[in-house]
Amino acid sequence: MAIQSDTKPLLEVKNLRIEFPTRRGVLTAVDDISFDIMPGEVLGVVGESGAGKSLTGAAVIGLLEPPGRIAAGSISLEGQRIDNLPYEKMRQIRGRKIGAIFQDPLTSLNPLYSIGRQLVETIQTHTDMSESQARRRAVELLADVGIPAPERRVDQYPHQFSGGMRQRVVIALALAVNPKLVIADEPTTALDVSIQAQILDLIRKLCKERNVGVIIITHDMGVIAETADRVAVMYAGRIAEIGPVRDVIKHAKHPYTHGLMGSIPTIGHDTEKLTQIDGSMPRLTDIPRGCAFNPRCPKAFDKCFVDRPELIQVEQTRAACWLYEKEAVHG
Amino acid sequence: MFAFIIRRLLQSLIVMLAVAFISFSLFNFVGDPVNNMVGQEATAEQREALRVQLGLNDPFPIQFARFIGNAVQGDFGVSYRLSRPVSDVIATRLPATLELVFVAAVLALVIGLPLGVYTGLHRHGFGSKVLLTLSLIGISLPTFLIGIMLILIFAVWLGWLPSFGRGDTVQIGWWSTNFLTVAGWKSIIMPAVTLCLFQLTLIMRLVRAEMMEVLRTDYIKFARARGLSNRAVHFGHALKNTMVPVITITGLQIGSLIAFAIITETVFQWPGMGLLFLQAIQFADIPVMAAYLCLVAFIFVVINLMVDLLYYAVDPRLRVERSGGGH
Amino acid sequence: MTDSTDDIIVTRSLWFRFADGLRRFFDGDVFYSFRHSPVIMVAFAVTVLYFLLAFLAPWVAPHNTYDVMTLNLMDGFKPPVWEAGGDPRFLLGTDDQGRDVLSTIMFGARVSLTVGFLSVLLAMVLGIVLGMVAGYVGGKTDAIIMRIADVQLSFPAILIVLLIDGFTRSVLPRGVHEQLALVVLVLSIAFANWVQFARTVRGSCLVEKNKEYVQAARVIGLHPALIMLRHVLPNVMGPILVIATLGLASAVLTEATLSFLGVGVPPTEPSLGTLINVGSDYLFSGSWWITIFPGAALAVLVLAVNLLGDWLRDALNPKLR
Fold first, then answer.
1. CATH code at C88?
2. Is B148 on the interface with C (CB under 8 A)?
3. N or C: which end of chain A has fewer CB within 10 A?
4. CB–CB of B314 and A112 under 8 A?
C-alpha cells in the first residue's frame, strides 16, 4: 500500500455516470462511481449481471454502445483525460495503451483470417514494424501465452484452436503492443472449469511481468479471490464496497458483500450452510430510494430508506453503508 | 474439397434429371405430339407409323432415356409454332438474353454492394434513410411499369434511346453481340437498367442487413478494442464476413434475372429466350418450353456450383473441414 | 390494490381479457413505434382505404365497368377532368372502350387484392402445415420437404407460376382455362410462396420439439403435435405476419406482372396489371392516363403494404433498434 501511494495512478475514474436515454426516460446504469488503478495492479470488479460492471469497462476503453453515454465524471489514463477524446484519438489508445479481453474466445476472433494475420494487423496498426518483424513478434507473443509450436500455429485459423487456446490468442492480441492497462471482461466465463485457472494465472503472470494494470470484470467471486489485488463490488450501478481482496473477503463490511462471500463454497467449512441473498437486484427502472440494497438488506434501518450512502472508509476498505457512519465520524 | 465437389455435382445431376423428367412429362402427357406434327386429315395408319418412327410405343424408361440422350446433344425436337429445330431457335435467342442478364447483374452488383455497405455503416444517417426509402419504392414498382416509364421518358419524349429491339449487333460465329456497336449499347441500356433495379435494391438491402448483423458480433467489437482503424474494421473484417450470404443470394439473383428477363424482354421486345418462352407458353409450344426449362435449370446448376466454389475461396472453415485439421 | 386485483382476476370476463390484451398492445413497443412514425400511419391508412374501396367497389365506384350496357364508345379516350376536353362524369378520364378509369381502378384493385390475399392465405396454410410436419416428424420427411423447398426457392416465383400456367393451358381446353384462370393463378402464386412460411415454422418447431413440455405432454398422453401447435404458432406469429405482409405485396406484384404478360387473369375481369397492359398500347399516342393511373394505383398499394411489412419486421425485432 505504502509503496503504491507514492506512484501516480495509472487509471483514475472519477464520479463516472453512464446513462441510457429510453422512451420511458433516462436510465442511469452506472451512477457516480470512482476508483483508480496503479501500474501492475489487478482490480477485480464483481457484481450481478446488470450491476454496471461491463459498462464501466466499455466506458474506459471508449466503446460504450449508443445510445449509452457518459453523462458525467471523468476517466484519466496516466493523468490524461480519455473520456472526451475524439474517436480517432481514442482509437489510437485502444490496443496501444488499453488492451481488452472479451468473454467468449469462440466469437472474439474473426473466423476468416488466420490468427497470425490478426496479430500482425494489430501490431502494424500501432507500430512502424515491417510485415516480417510483426510476424516474428506475433510468433513470440504466441509463445509467451503458452501456445505450443507457435511458428506453425501462427498460420492457422481460429476454428483450428480449442476454446482455451483461443483465449490465449485473445490474450496475445490484447498484449500485442504492450498496453499499460488490460480490461478483461469475464475472461473465463465461457471456458471449461479446468482451463479457467490456467487462463487466470496466465493473465496475472503476464501482467505482473510487464507491469500492466488489469481490470477483471466478473460475477464470480472465486475468480477475484484467485487473481485480483483489490476488488470493487458493484450493485445497481454503484460501488458498494472497494478494498484489498483479502480484507473484503475476510472482513466484508457491506451487507451485500457479506452475502456474496457467504455464497462462495470454501473447502474445510463444508458443515457451514451456504447463505444466500433473498430477492434480486432491482431493475434500473425502479431503483429504490435511499440505498439500492435496502429491500434485500437484513440490517437496513430508517436512514437506508431515505438517503443514499457514500463510500465510507472502514478499516482497510471503503463501504457505502450507513452502518458505518458513526465509526467514520469517530475514527 | 474434392469429395465436396463430387457430392455437389451428384446433387446437381439429380436436379437436372428431375427437371428433365418434368420436361419429358410435358412432352408425353400434355397433348399428343403426333397430333401436333401431322394434320387433322392424317389417317390412322399414318399416325401409327409416325408413332413407331418417334418411338412413342416404346416402354416409358426407354423413351425417357432417349429424351435425355437427345437433350444432352441439344436436340429438343422441332418447335410447333416456328417449325424449326428448337436448338436453332434457342441458339439465335440465347446471346441476347445472356448479354442482357450480364449487364444487369454487373450493374446490380457494382451499385448495390457499395450502397448496402454505406447504409449498413451509417444506418441512422440521412443518406441511408433516403436510400432505403428509394429502395422500397424500387421494390414496389413493378418491373414492367418501370420499363414503360423509361420508354416514355427516354424514347418517346427525349428520343435519346431506342424503345425496342437490340439495335445493331455484330455476329461472332453463332453469337451475336450488342457490345461492339454504339447502337447496340444504346439499345441495351434501358432493358438492363429495368432488369437490374429490383435485384439492385435486393442486394443493397441484403448487404445492409448482413453488415448490421456482422457489426454486432464480438469479433468486430474486439477488432475495435484492438484499435484497428474504421477502414480495417469495416472493409477488412466486416465486409468479408458478409460475403458468404451475399454470394449465395447474388447467385440466386442471377438465376432470377434470367426469369425476370421474360418481363423486360416483353416490354422492350428484346429478342431473347424470355420472349421466346412467353410466346411458347401462349401457344403451348411444348418443345420450346421443355428446352427453355432444361436450359434455365442448367444455368442455375452451374451458378450454384460456382457459388459453392466461391465459398471455398472465402471461408477457411470449409477448406479445412475435410482435410482434418487439428482441433 | 392487491385485493382488488385478486377480485378482478376471479371475475375476469372474456371481455376484460380482450380489453387487457388491447391495452397491453397499445402500451407495447409495436404500437409506440407505430404512433411515432407518420409514414407508417399513412401507409396503414392507405392500405385500409384500398381494401375498403376494393371491397365496396360495386357500391362506391362511380360507374359499373362490368356493365357493358352503360358503355358508350363515344366516351372513349376522354382525358382527366383537369385536362382540356375532360368530362366531369369521368374524374380520371376514360379508356379506349369509354370506361371510367377511376372505376376500372377500383374494380381492378378488387381483383388484384383478392388474388393477392387468397394466395397469401393459401401459401401461409400450406407453409405452416408443411413446416410443422417437417419440423416435428423430422428425418426423411423433413429432408424431402426441405429439399423441395430449397430447389423451389432457387427458382423464381414468376417462373414457377408461368410454368404452371403454361401447363394448365396445354392440359385444359381453352374455355375451361379461362374460367379457371383465377383459381389457377391463386394456386400457382400460393405454391410459389409457401417456402418462407415453412422455413420459419420448421425452425421454431425444431427449437420447441425438445422442450420439456412437449415430452411431458407425450407422457400424459396428449398428442404432442397439438401442444406444439399451441406453443409454436404464438411464437412464430410475428415473423409469419411479416412474411404474410411482404408476401401480399409480392403476390399483388406477381399477379400484375402475369396479367401484364397476358397470362394472368382473364381480360373479362381486368386487374390493375391488365389495365396497365391494355393502356400501354395507347401510351405513345398520348392517352397516358389509361396506363399511368392504374400504374400509380398499383405502385402506391404495393409501396404501402411493403412499408407496413418492413416496419413490422423492424418493430417486432428489437435487436435491430
1. 1.10.3720.10
2. yes
3. N
4. yes
Contacts of A173 in chain B (CB under 8 A): 222, 226
Which chain C residues have a beta carbon less than 8 Å from that of B304?
A: 154
Q: Please, are residues A21 and A67 in contact by the beta-carbon 8 Å criterion?
A: yes
Say how far apart CA B225 and CA A99 lie, in whole Å: 7
**Residue B195 touches partner C, C-beta closer than 8 Å:** no
Confidence tier at B324 by pLDDT (50, 70, 90): very low
* Domain of B301, in residue numbers: 92-326
Domain housing A221: 11-97+179-266+273-329
Report how many Cβ contacts below 8 Å link chain B to chain C: 106
Least confident of B299-308, C168-177, C265-274: C168-177
**Which residue in the set A94, A104, A161 is minimally distant from B227, CB to CB?**
A94
Interaxial angle between packed helices C272-283 and C101-137, expressed in degrees from 0 to 180 and rounded to the nearest 10: 130
Do B219 and A108 count as a contact with CB atoms less than 8 A apart?
A: yes
Neighbours of B, requiring at least 3 CB pairs below 8 Å, are: A, C
Distance CA C186, CA A5 (A): 81
Q: Examine residue B84 and state whether it is found in any structural domain, yes or no.
A: no
CB contact under 8 A, A100 and B222: yes
B237 contact residues in A (CB cutoff 8 A): 110, 113
ipTM: 0.85
Residue C303 touches chain B, beta carbons under 8 Å: yes
Calculate the alpha carbon distances from A132 to A117, A257, C194 in Å.
11, 50, 55
Residue C223 vs residues A191, A195, C3, C229, C236: alpha-carbon distances, Å: 40, 45, 39, 10, 20
Predicted confidence at residue C45, as pLDDT, reads: 93
Give how many domains chain B has, as a whole number.
2
What does the pLDDT look like over A71-122, one tens digit per residue?
889 999 998 899 888 888 999 999 889 999 988 888 889 888 899 999 999 9
pLDDT score at C14: 55
Chain B hits for C171, Cβ within 8 Å: 30
Cβ contacts of C271 on chain B, cutoff 8 Å: none
> What does the block give as the cell for A274?
451456504
Domain count, chain C: 1
Query: Which three-class secondary structure string do you get for A180-247?
Result: CEEEEECCCCCCCHHHHHHHHHHHHHHHHHHCCEEEEEECCHHHHHHHCCEEEEEECCEEEEEEEHHH
**Both B104 and B59 in a single domain?**
no
Tell me the C-alpha distance between B315 and A113, whole Å: 9
